[in-house]
Each structure stands twice: as C-alpha cells, then as structure tokens.
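Protocol step 4 of 5: obtain the predicted structure for the target chain.
Materials: sequence only (see below). No template structures provided, no constraints applied. The aim of this step is simply to have a reference model before the mutagenesis design in step 5. Sequence pasted as it appears in the construct record:
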Amino acid sequence: MMSDAARMNSTIYVGGLENAVTEKLLANAFLPFGEIVDVTLPKPDLPSSREPHRGFGYIEFEVAGDAKEAIDNMDQSEFFGRVLKVAAAKPQKDSNDGLGSKTAVWETEGWIARHGGVDEEDRQAAQQTQHASSPADATANLDTDVAGPRLEQ
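Step 4 output (structure tokens):
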C-alpha cells in the first residue's frame, strides 16, 4: 500500500480533454509509459450537465518515475484534436482554505486570534489621542458669525 505522498508523486493531471475521451482511451494513451493503477475523469459539478467529464483527468502510475516520463513526453501533445496539459497532480485543497472557499476568511478558525486583535501600538495611539488637549466642544473655537454667505437686503 502506497503512502499518500508516494501516490501524489505517481499521479499526473491531464487537462484539455475532448468530451469523447473516456477513461479507457486515456489509459491506453498513457500505457506506454508504465503500469497504470487508476484513471479518473471527474464528473461535472452540476448533475444536470450533459458533459461526460470536466475536461481533465488524473492518471496514477505504479511507479513515480513512469509518471515523470509521461509528463515529459505527453505535455503539449495533441490528443483527439486538443493540446494536452500534462503535469504532476497537486493535492486537493480543503474546501475551507483560501480562494474558492465557501467560508469567509475571518470565519476560519484562528483568523481573528491572528489578525483581529488590536495591537499595542494602536492601543497607545488611541490613549494619546484621548489625553491630548482638545476642547470639550468641537465647535468652541469656530467663529460662527462668519459662516456661510451673507444675504444683503
């Protein structure tokens, strides 16, 4: 049984797939590079979609070196009239992390603890502002006799 890290090293991403491509066709195209453990073509998010897959897939090889060989030889190659993007697969992001998350960043655990508190510098600045000599009434030093246009009669 392979560890998750070993599985990621032996799994490739294949993008730019034509709708006619099936898991079997994709497996046959990459078989020359080594023993394939699994081929996955993720289905569209919407159940009502008529697309057979989302235009990309993942191929897991038995050996990580075979995955590298497939990337080196198949990236930018043409398959069913489309140019393929073949690269090392990246771990799936947690749906609660970063961009694309369905949770606001300030709702994530620990964010307020790291970013939401008032730091000491802000606290000191607020205290100095309160203690500064300022008139109790903000309008006390204004000359209210000359404000606005004078109407001549």
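Step 4 remarks: The helical segments are 4-9, 23-30, 64-74, 111-116, 120-131. The chain has a mean pLDDT of 80.
Proceed to step 5.
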